[in-house]
Write a structure and sequence with these properties.
Layout lengths: L10 E8 L5 H11 L8 E6 L8 E7 L3
Parallel strand pairs: 1-2
Antiparallel strand pairs: 1-3
Length: about 70
Amino acid sequence: MDMAGGSTDDILKLTVHLVDYRDRAALNEEWEAMFPDPQSRPARQVMAAQLDRGALIQADLLAVLQ
């Protein structure tokens, strides 16, 4: 987000694809560190997925930048 001229405050939605859905606990830990205020967190969708090239996680986000 920094390189695009924004911050995590500009994120509206984050979609996360996990190979092992049990990794959700680790994801939640990072999520809470990145967005500590529950009232200002973006929308989030987490899905189990089969990813290419040995990837364990893939994330897509939607953000609005000025």
